[in-house]
Amino acid sequence: xxxxxxxxxxxxxxxxxxxxxxxxxxxxxxxxxxxxxxxxxxxxxxxxxxxxxxxxxxxxxxxxxxxxxxxxxxxxxxxxxxxxxxxxxxxxxxxxxxxxxxxxxxxxxxxxxxxxxxxxxxxxxxxxxxxxxxxxxxxxxxxxxxxxxxxxxxxxxxxxxxxxxxxxxxxxxxxxxxxxxxxxxxxxxxxxxxxxxxxxxxxxxxxxxxxxxxxxxxxxxxxxxxxxxxxxxxxxxxxxxxxxxxxxxxxxxxxxxxxxxxxxxxxxxxxxxxxxxxxxxxxxxxxxxxxxxxxxxxxxxxxxxxxxxxxxxxxxxx
Length: 318
Hints:
With 318 residues, the protein is α/β, with parallel strands linked by helices. The protein folds into 2 domains: 16-109 and 214-307, Vaccinia Virus protein VP39 (Rossmann fold, 3-Layer(aba) Sandwich), CATH 3.40.50.150; 132-211, Orthogonal Bundle (DNA polymerase, domain 1), CATH 1.10.150.170. It contains 13 helices and 7 strands. The chain has helices at residues 16-23, 40-47, 60-65, 85-91, 108-112, 137-143, 146-157, 162-172, 178-189, 200-211, 214-228, 242-255, 288-293; strands at 30-33, 52-57, 75-79, 97-103, 229-239, 277-278, 301-307. Strands 3-2-1-4-5-7-6 form a 7-stranded mixed beta sheet, sandwiched between helices. Helix 1 packs across helix 2 (40-47) and helix 7 packs across helix 8 (162-172).
């Protein structure tokens, strides 16, 4: 998967060699690909010797397109959110797995299909629904009030001109097409030809994250992975922007026993629960060679860790 942008690139799985190295698959092990997409990580897991891969995706199109891989008896394809992975395992009589890969965000396949409405590189309907159900982007933008739209742009797109863009969207309603929305944002943000990043990028990202509850899904998915992994199991997560990466970084810090430094005003609070992860690896970013082959990988970051034998936590201490 990748972040929104204009570059048309083949469906190249980002950091795939690093992900497979972090997951350290042994012959015959069971792995979960929680974000099947175009199947890049699943193919790599099967190629590394996995005895079984359970591949999930909330997008029914991704699962349908992946049917060509189904003749491999080691693969099970399921149309489901990765936050439900432990329930999916229980339904199949599987208690734990050996490795889990999560590739967070929108997939190249979704970006490249104009009819899905995720990208402004080609005009299409304002949809942006990963599961093809629920509120569309057009329905949200044409019904929400200005303050709600501004909040979404600020919280999920870190957009400094959120209020001005929201005001412009409301004034232009109804907005139905990706090209319309991109043009509105560019005018409101004062877009100048030659800018490094199109200002519409942040707005499209924010709306997509909001509609698909992506950050909430990531938090729930990390907790599900903690429950699903056996002691010694490996978890590898690729993120594409700071909001996602912060969640993963905080999760691994908490679950590995790390706590922020205290002060005389706010002493350190030790968590009585045992660490559920260890050997948290330093984050990995794409090499120059990978970026040349796959420009969409430019903001990717991989974090990984190994499951301990401690019981899974029941919620986080706030």
